[in-house]
């Protein structure tokens, strides 16, 4: 097990705890008194303070997913699955956040797809650096915002 997936799992665990705490707090809220009034349309909550870091992490995961598949020579889906887990846990009921995270992953993927069509030494180096940046970013998110 490398450090990046381990820290990423810590991030997912911290995210799950934060979501569960938020859901428990919402369940404890009193019911509205006026049942005759029409319910307002659903509004997405204010994004969490770590949103920009999460978007960057999504870009990194897209980049690493592309570069790993390019350089390994065989399909590897673990980075895309990790991203899907993150999206599912972070933005289950927030379609706009889901779209932003998906777009960031795709942007990271397409950025490298437009530059590298074969595995080269610079592609391998970029993949290593992005994995290191992702691990650092994930550990910072967990350390600063995890519960």
Described by strand count, sense and barrel closure, the largest sheet is: none
Oligomer: single chain
Q: What overall form do the CA principal axes indicate?
A: globular
Percent in helix: over 70%
Strands, count: 0
Please indicate the percent range of residues in DSSP E strands (runs of 2 or more).
under 5%
Report the uncertain regions. 1-8, 10-32
Radius of gyration, Cα only, in angstroms? 18 Å
Cα(first) to Cα(last) distance is: 24 Å
Number of helices: 5
Structural class: mainly alpha
The run of helices and strands is HHHHH
- Average of the residue pLDDT scores: 77
Task: Describe the protein's architecture and organization.
The protein is mostly helical and 147 residues long. The chain has a domain at 48-147. Helix content is 71%, strand content 0%. Helix 1 runs parallel beside helix 3 (78-90), helix 2 packs antiparallel against helix 3 (78-90) and helix 2 packs antiparallel against helix 5 (121-145). The radius of gyration is 18 Å and the shape is globular. Mean pLDDT is 77; it is low at 1-8 and 10-32.
């Amino acid at each position: 097990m490398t450090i990046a997936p381990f820290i990423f799992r810590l991030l997912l665990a911290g995210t799950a705890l934060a979501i569960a705490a938020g859901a428990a707090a919402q369940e404890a809220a009193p019911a509205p008194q006026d049942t005759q009034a029409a319910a307002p349309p659903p509004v997405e909550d204010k994004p969490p303070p770590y949103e920009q870091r999460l978007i960057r992490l999504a870009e990194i995961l897209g980049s690493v997913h592309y570069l790993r598949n390019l350089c390994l020579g065989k399909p590897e889906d673990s980075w895309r699955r990790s991203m899907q887990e993150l999206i599912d846990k972070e933005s289950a009921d927030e379609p706009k956040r889901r779209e932003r995270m998906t777009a960031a992953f795709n942007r990271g993927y397409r950025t490298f797809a437009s530059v590298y069509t074969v595995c080269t030494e610079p592609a391998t180096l970029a993949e290593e650096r992005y994995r290191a940046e992702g691990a650092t970013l994930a550990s910072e998110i967990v350390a600063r915002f995890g519960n």
